[in-house]
Design goal:
The chain has 332 residues and is mostly helical. The protein has 12 helices and no strands. The chain has helices spanning 8-30, 57-84, 94-117, 127-144, 146-149, 161-185, 192-209, 219-239, 245-258, 268-289, 292-296, 299-321. The mean pLDDT is 88.
Length: 332
């Protein structure tokens, strides 16, 4: 009897997800040790509550130094990998093991850093910088995937091949920055929003560590990573006093209906079922919330789709100054 052999990259990916759950549990388990940390009063939507009332020298140094070390290390690995151009395969390259090990080390280091000095990058930069950095990353994915699934109900915008090549060439550098910057922005607190956010960051670091493997290109896996923001964004919104959970849930889910579900082999009937369920759910919330919900509903999709064209324009300008060649082993 022949047994199907599970590829190495798949085994490592599932093991990494298990490690992600373990790391998230560790943050939760250690959270009571932070209960006496002092904070300033919340002063509005732009205020980040999880920072010390007064900056400390070691808090500043540890957050920025460890973040910088983490960031430069990952950028160096990406640069080395792109220069060496390894083939996409199911077995891990040596560079993958280095990325996995270093990301694991820095994740544990950040937990330790929080419990000794607490402060992250939040003492110096706005919460909006962390939120926008991840939003642009999700917009970037929408742009990269347009040749395969289109942008509006399977229809493909007329983006040039050079724009898509540039998006694929530079996405690792930008994604690495957005993820690692956001990771070191927050102390490892254990609110539901923090826990969901850290679990999201951990699996994104896992995905980045698996570059040049075939699992890195697994469409069901990458769609799951895209849609993780539905849960995370909704939970964070529900924890806020502004009652915008519906806007985030149906906003991100709307992108699934308009764009993301057209990248998998769903039948036309299945797509209609998803669409009707979405419309029914949004209608129920609209009845409860009133006319305001119709203003909130399209905001996220409008921002994301406008962002795709703005990003395409920026990458088009980049290609005019630095032409991007198509590597022989590039994958769509």
């Amino acid at each position: 009897m022949n047994r199907k052999i599970i590829p190495q990259d798949t085994i490592v990916a599932f093991g990494g997800v298990g490690f992600t759950l373990l790391m998230t549990w560790l943050i939760w388990a250690m959270a009571p040790l932070l209960k006496d940390v002092p904070h300033l009063a919340d002063s509005g939507a732009s205020w980040y509550w999880w920072q010390l009332p007064e900056r400390t020298t070691m808090g500043i140094f540890s957050a920025w130094f460890f973040y910088g070390l983490h960031q430069l290390t990952m950028w160096g690995l990406i640069f080395y990998a792109q220069r060496s151009q390894p083939k996409y395969r199911h077995t891990l390259h040596e560079i993958n093991w280095w990325a996995l090990g270093l990301n694991c080390f820095f994740c544990l280091l950040h937990i330790v850093q929080t419990h000794i000095w607490y402060d992250g990058l939040a003492q110096h930069v706005s919460i909006w910088s962390a939120l926008v950095s991840v939003a642009i990353m999700l917009i970037w994915v929408l742009l990269m995937e347009t040749p395969r699934r289109g942008l509006f109900f399977g229809k493909k915008p007329p983006f040039s091949k050079s724009i898509i090549r540039a998006a694929k060439k530079y996405h690792g550098y930008y994604f690495s920055w957005a993820i690692i910057y956001t990771f070191w922005y927050h102390p490892t607190e254990a609110t539901w929003g923090h826990l969901m956010g850290f679990s999201y960051i951990f699996v994104l670091l896992l995905q980045g560590s698996l570059f040049f493997t075939r699992f890195h290109l697994n469409r069901k896996w990458t769609l799951l990573l895209e849609m993780w923001v539905i849960v995370h964004g909704t939970i964070v919104a529900l924890e806020s006093p502004h009652n915008i959970g519906g806007m985030f849930f149906f906003g991100f889910l709307g992108i699934f209906i308009i764009t993301q579900m057209h990248g998998l082999n769903f039948t036309t009937l299945q797509k209609w079922v998803f669409t009707l369920l979405y419309l029914a759910g949004a209608s129920v919330v609209a009845i409860q919330r009133g006319a305001l919900f119709y203003i909130e509903l399209p905001r996220i999709a409008l921002i994301d789709y406008c962002g795709v064209f703005i990003l395409a324009g920026i990458l088009w300008l980049i290609t005019k100054f630095t032409p991007v060649e198509n590597p022989a082993n590039a994958k769509d």
